[in-house]
Amino acid sequence: MPKVGKLLARLTRVCHLGKKTEHKKLQALAKEILNDWDAMVAFVKNPELPPTNNEAERALRHAVIARNIGFGTRTTEGSLAYSSLLSVIETCRLRDINPWTYIAEVLAGARQGLSPPPFPVGS
Q1: Average pLDDT by consecutive 10-residue portion of the chain (123 residues)?
Q2: Cβ–Cβ contacts within 10 Å for residue 37, how many?
Q3: Helices H, strands E: what count in the chain?
């Protein structure tokens, strides 16, 4: 880990130098990296984390396309309902669970006055 510490120290120095440059885009990038430092280097300190957010971006892609096609929601409540439903569907997908079966079970239970069951762990 000593090499990693040296590399992080070098990156910090480079970013501080970049903040002082006249090149506006480099300045902005250096400031952004320093402002979000903990998030930017989290994967270095925790090897279980992915180095990019590509998986999260891919998970949101269909929601962004649907929003663009459907022109979004009209109310705060609609936005909350939509985002909650997308979260449930994506979590089911990642856990290899049929989201429609899970949602149907939750709704059937709600009609009987039952609280939602815990989210299944999956296979």
Answers
A1: 84 93 93 92 86 81 80 85 87 89 92 86 67
A2: 14
A3: 7, 0
Q: Nearest CA to 97 among 75, 69, 78, 120?
A: 120
> Amino acid identity, residue 52?
T
Q: Supply angle C-alpha 107, 75, 102, rounded to 5.
A: 20
On whether the pTM is more than 0.85, the answer is no
**Structure tokens, 33:** 């990296």
Q: Kindly report the CA angle at 93 between 60 and 95, in degrees rounded to 5?
A: 125
Spatial contact of 27 and 21, defined as CB atoms under 8 Å apart: yes
What is d(CA 25, CA 8) in angstroms, rounded to the nearest whole number?
Answer: 21
Check residue 115 and report its DSSP letter: P
Note whether 5 and 17 are within 8 A (CB): no
| Whole-number Cα distances in Å, 7 to 3, 20, 32, 37, 41 | 6, 20, 18, 14, 11
- C-alpha 61/C-alpha 54 separation (Å) is 10
